[in-house]
Specification:
By secondary structure, the protein is mainly beta. It is 5% helix and 55% strand.
Length: 258
């Protein structure tokens, strides 16, 4: 066997021939100040700020304002039909319909046992994942019946983000990424350092630290760094295999390949 063929076979066995994940720059666009919730056809954006939410439905745009109830801390949508709003300052959860009309308001200060809600993620119709700082648990909550359905094991450490695709729910802490199934069972635990946020794709996650973005697939044991042909700082949003990185004025579109 020639040396070239020998080294080729060795590299394939060791995974050396695998193409590293890439993000190819497509274009940049102007945007309003706020965080992205969804991107519709024609680059029409649903988004939120600390005071308002804008939702696009067909040719109409709907708004929700929280000026009388404090600062909006987190917002999560379930297929655009339901929007959950967390106002940490008042320990308040508000659920809106597709026209951003209020359906439910829950003041957790009035419920027993007391909850201190720090993060939310939609879990499907009538259900939402809550991270409760009092119990240090992730809880699945029925917001129509105001009833706790499931509690997970204790989450150790400071929680940075909670995200769900309704089948699974992920909790990122300063040192770990925890994956729970829809029944609250711990599926996987991965040690992490210095990651600050993540978002959910189709069978993979995109994670970020202060300088870079990484991909974590169902098959990988650790996040792989994504190589960009252009790099911009800011928040990020994932739709399909299109990654958007944005600041207060501009959104930059990238196509992922991995």
């Amino acid at each position: 066997m020639s040396k070239s063929i020998y080294f080729l076979l060795i590299s394939i066995c060791l995974g050396w021939s695998k193409t590293p994940p890439e993000a190819t720059f497509v274009s940049s666009y102007q945007k309003k100040i706020g965080h992205i919730l969804a991107i519709h056809e024609g680059l029409v954006i649903s988004q939120y700020s600390d005071k308002e939410i804008w939702n696009k439905l067909g040719n109409d745009t709907y708004r929700f304002s929280s000026l009388d109830r404090g600062t909006i801390s987190e917002v999560d949508q379930f297929t655009g039909l339901l929007t959950a709003v967390l106002l940490k300052g008042f320990n308040l959860l508000i659920v809106l319909d597709d026209r951003l009309t209020e359906l439910v308001e829950i003041n957790f200060n009035t419920l027993t046992p007391l909850k201190d809600i720090q993060h939310i993620a939609m879990a499907g119709a009538n259900q939402i994942w809550l991270y409760d700082k009092v119990s240090n648990k992730l809880q699945k909550f029925d917001y129509l019946r105001k009833l706790n359905l499931i509690s997970t094991i204790n989450v150790i450490g400071e929680v940075i983000a909670v995200k769900s695709n309704t089948e699974f729910c992920w909790v990122m802490t300063r040192n770990e990424l925890l994956k729970f199934n829809h029944q609250g069972g711990l599926v996987n635990k991965l040690s992490l350092d210095n990651f600050t946020d993540f978002t959910i794709g189709d069978n993979y996650l995109i994670l970020s630290d202060e300088k870079s973005h990484f991909i974590l697939t169902n098959q990988s044991k650790k996040p792989e760094k994504i190589f960009f042909d252009k790099m911009f700082a800011g928040s990020f949003f994932l739709q399909g295999q299109t990654l958007y990185i944005y600041d207060e004025k501009t959104i930059h579109e990238f196509q992922l390949k991995f």
